[in-house]
Design brief:
The complex is a heterodimer of chains A (290) and B (171). Chain A folds into two domains: 48 residues; 239 residues, Alpha-Beta Barrel (TIM Barrel). Helices cover 38% and strands 21% of the residues of chain A. Chain A starts with a helix and ends with a helix. Chain B contains eight helices and no strands. Classes of the chains: A alpha/beta (290), B mainly alpha (171).
């Protein structure tokens, strides 16, 4: 027994209408603490333009607004062109600050460059970090699992500005958190939380609170260089400068959005269930006896 | 028109899965955005089919009936995307459990199954020998997946990183 196409398309229409009704850009005032602007940022995202993401750079900007992010870095695989598209679009629509960056991939290391304008194609972490700094950016060790440690010499680690301490891997891989903590042990890295967003999960599901003079790209980069960041990991564990963390201790919503999946609304569920049943109905009608 | 409708529908299902994965709901702007993002899939599929058809199978461009028959093989992938959409709808965003691995393994199995199915279609419908049909479909897949993977993962990786991996492997 197959579903009538009218019923299936009707369900899809319900899914879209209820989804659109639930889709709101939250209105919120800038958060100030200790004289700093507290910038919610995600420094590791991928677009669908040559970086195996599921959303265009424009889509990343719109999604970031909905997840209450003030800044994102679009970090294409060994290229910066999609980030520049995202920056242009965000300026056009008044969206979050978009920092141009790239993820420099190596067999034994992944490094995020943020605040760089030109593609960097160098073989070693030392050389990459030096070039990032020459371009005025900051260098961040991406998801430093044990297999990515060999690329980081002691000298290279000493030059890094930050390292990811929260990444979606910590929610699915029990080896991730111990590896990230061990990588940063004894180092003066800025704590960084990033979603490494490719389309699954939510952009900003791991995020960094940056204590910056304002929400502009230069101010955010200055704050990372000064290690003025706070990250909430699984269970709400706090990483980064304890004094800065104390300044936002009375803002539980900042910790919540960084660590807990918000409950789905009735409209969300209506959209999901209608979409699931509608898709099954539509696809089942495509089945033919070729 | 039927061919275009088929490919647009294919794109629509992928876009719905992407919208559910990223926001947990169907949102118009995300459906449009994900359609733009995934448009390379049907385009490269069509390109691979037409190229190999012209070179090896038919005298000229494939007819609408030929193309429609070929695209019929996408039904299995439509079910795969529907399953993905269902999974990401029900799982919490921070859950990256075993479903990602299951989806990946299912994709490998589907790749093989749809390959054999398309070979049978060419043999049954067009009288191709087994060897020719296998080469035809392999050629189509090579163009489709080759260009698709290159686009999806980025030109920078394929010309910058893959040679490094090979060098590291042989060192």
């Amino acid at each position: 027994m197959t579903m009538s196409p009218r019923v299936a398309w009707g369900l899809m229409a319900i899914a879209v209408v209820s989804g659109a009704a639930a889709d709101r850009v939250p209105v919120r005032a800038p958060i100030m603490a200790g004289g700093y602007r507290v910038v919610a940022a995600d420094f590791h995202t991928h677009s669908s333009y040559w970086s195996d993401g599921a959303q265009t750079p424009m889509g990343l900007v719109l999604a970031a607004e909905r997840q209450q992010l003030d800044a994102i870095a679009i970090t294409g695989h060994n290229q910066v062109s999609d980030a520049k598209v995202g920056r242009w679009f965000s300026a056009l629509v008044g969206g979050p600050t978009v920092l141009v960056g790239q993820e420099m991939l190596g067999v034994d290391h992944h490094v995020i460059a943020v605040g760089t304008e030109h593609m960097i194609d160098l073989p070693t972490v030392d050389a990459q970090v030096a070039e990032v700094h020459r371009q005025g950016g900051v260098a961040i060790a991406a998801h430093p699992m044990v297999e990515f440690w060999p690329g980081f010499s002691d000298a290279a680690k000493a030059q890094l500005d930050g390292a990811e301490i929260c990444h979606p891997l910590v929610y699915g891989n029990p080896k991730a958190m111990p590896a990230f903590e061990q990588f940063r042990a004894g180092q003066n890295f800025a704590a960084i939380g990033s979603s490494d967003f490719h389309g699954l999960g939510r952009i900003g599901q791991c995020r960094t609170y940056v204590f910056a003079a304002d929400a502009t790209a230069p101010a955010i980069l200055d704050a990372i260089r000064a290690r003025r960041t706070v990250v909430y990991g699984p269970g709400g564990k706090t990483y980064g400068d304890p004094a800065l963390a104390a300044l936002i201790a009375d803002r539980p919503e900042l910790r919540a959005i960084a660590t807990v999946d918000p409950p789905a609304s009735v409209l969300d569920w209506l959209s999901r269930l209608s979409a699931m049943i509608g898709l099954v109905g539509l696809v089942s009608r495509r089945t033919t006896a070729r | 028109m039927s061919v275009i409708r088929r490919q647009l529908f294919f794109l629509f299902v992928i876009a719905c899965a992407a919208s559910l994965a990223a926001e947990g709901r169907l949102v118009p702007w995300l459906i449009v955005d994900a359609s733009l993002s995934a448009a390379f899939m049907p385009m490269f599929q069509w390109l691979g089919f037409v190229m190999v058809w012209r070179m090896r199978v038919g005298d000229g461009a494939p007819s609408a009936r030929d193309t429609d028959g070929f695209l019929d093989g996408n039904v299995a992938w439509l079910w795969w995307w529907t399953a993905i959409a269902t999974d990401v709808s029900l799982a919490p965003p921070r859950s990256m459990g075993p479903s990602v691995l299951i989806a990946f393994l299912a994709a490998i199995a589907l790749f093989g199954w749809t390959f054999l199915r398309d070979v049978r279609w060419l043999r049954g419908g067009y009288g191709r020998s087994e060897r020719d049909a296998v080469l035809d479909i392999a050629g189509m897949r090579l163009v489709t997946w080759g260009f698709g993977v290159m686009w999806f993962f980025g030109i920078a990786i394929w010309f910058g990183e893959v040679p490094k991996v090979f060098a590291w492997w042989h060192s």
